[in-house]
TrEMBL record:
Subunit structure: Homodimer.
This enzyme's EC code(s): 6.1.1.6
Protein name: Lysine--tRNA ligase
This protein's GO CC annotations: cytosol
UniProt cofactor note: Binds 3 Mg(2+) ions per subunit.
Keyword Transferase: no
Stretches assigned to the Aminoacyl-transfer RNA synthetases class-II family profile domain: 191-501
Locations listed in the record: Cytoplasm
UniProt gene name: lysS
Organism, as annotated: Lysinibacter cavernae
Reactions that this protein is recorded to catalyse: tRNA(Lys) + L-lysine + ATP = L-lysyl-tRNA(Lys) + AMP + diphosphate
Keywords, comma-separated and alphabetical: Aminoacyl-tRNA synthetase, ATP-binding, Cytoplasm, Ligase, Magnesium, Metal-binding, Nucleotide-binding, Protein biosynthesis
Amino acid sequence: MSENATPEAELSADEIFEQKAVRMAKRERLIAEAADAGGGAYPVSVPVTHTIPQVRAAYSHLETGEESGDVVAVAGRIVFARNTGKLCFASLQAGDGSRIQAMVSLAEVGEESLQRWKDLVDLGDHVFVKGQVISSRRGELSVMVSDWAIASKALLPLPNLHNELNEETRVRQRYLDLIVREQARKTVLARSTTMTSLRDTFAEHNFVEVETPMLQTLHGGASARPFKTHSNAFDTELYLRIAPELFLKRAVVGGIDRVFEINRNFRNEGADSTHSPEFAMLEAYEAYGDYNSIADLTQELIQNAAIAVSGSHVVTWADGTEYDLGGNWDRISMYDSLSDAAGINITPQTSVADLLALADKEGVEVALPNHGKLVEELWEHFVKDGLTRPTFVIDFPVETSPLTRAHRSIDGVVEKWDLYIRGFELATGYSELIDPVVQRERFVAQALQAAAGDVEAMSLDEEFLRALEHGMPPSGGMGMGMDRLLMAITGLGIRETILFPLVK
């Protein structure tokens, strides 16, 4: 057993087969011994009295060479081992990455037990040890083992802890990533802490969390290409939802005035550094709010999450960069900021021909161009990359936001914002469209776009329209990708923030 075992990803198929065969033989021996003495390669349980973090917290005061006189029983995965004749050393790692040294000596366990340790224990095994807590001659907190057992036999070797895992191994074998890399464990904890913070902030504002269907007869709530499936029970085509919006609005119609959901969405589109076909989404709706109040709430949600994860509005990304999420975030007009950057006046009344001419001049290509799509693509070309601080980009073209209320004072514009952080869109918010007659007109326009070849256009949803016809109060709504929120807080790419991302 060596602390420098070759990682599985670096071994040939023959070498993996050989190492697995050796460990399989050890497994067979453990099972044979268990027939007489109990235990085995995979016992049901081991009599643990303390966790490794508990022992480290309780005995960190021990001086070099000091003995506590207290006996504990702990378990962990062996990530380092060294055998030196009459004394064996092993580092046991807990799930949070904390470690403690186990010292297995001839004087404490006897010759037979010491030899069994040498013969049967490998890197990667989960091992139970019982003994006195001491500080070694080198000052390392340790358990001087008096009794031990294998809790779970590993049949494949661990990666070398001295080498970095490549990205493919990290995302395809995330369990190895979690074992060997502290940042991977931190990211999981940061995600959990973020989710708790979001729910706590919503609770402070009296929001109710609900769950809505992931299988839907019509796809809607966003402009995106859906995944299709078939229900044998109902003998009908179904869609994996692209957004929970239309069902959450039904809840608002029903009187749940402040409602939110955190759950999975699916969009049958490309995958890149900021997009995943399957992703976690937060959506929230606030009766008698608008896009201004929901922007205030969104800023509070993100800032509270930053404090929960990092203790401050200033977060430190994985590469060491500090990013300030504090203060009141800028709110800039899409049309005004585009006009300033392009050097010409662009308004909701600017013709498609003029916008196409500008797009051609700048080399901006737009599929199925209309006024709204041209404005948004040109804005991304001229403005987006220049945003450094968190920024709400407000007041969008009506053509690209069919579920959004018309602006209260600007023709051709809807009350919508997109929030940009770290160079990508993190969240979007609206003053919600609640007029069922106008909503039907928007759906019909979307259907015409679908007929013209727009695969992301929405379907006409009669059930949703029927709900609106019963009266929905004026509302503000927002949606935010959870994976992207973690990207903003940690500085990582999307495949790092998703625990088990979809990969080819």
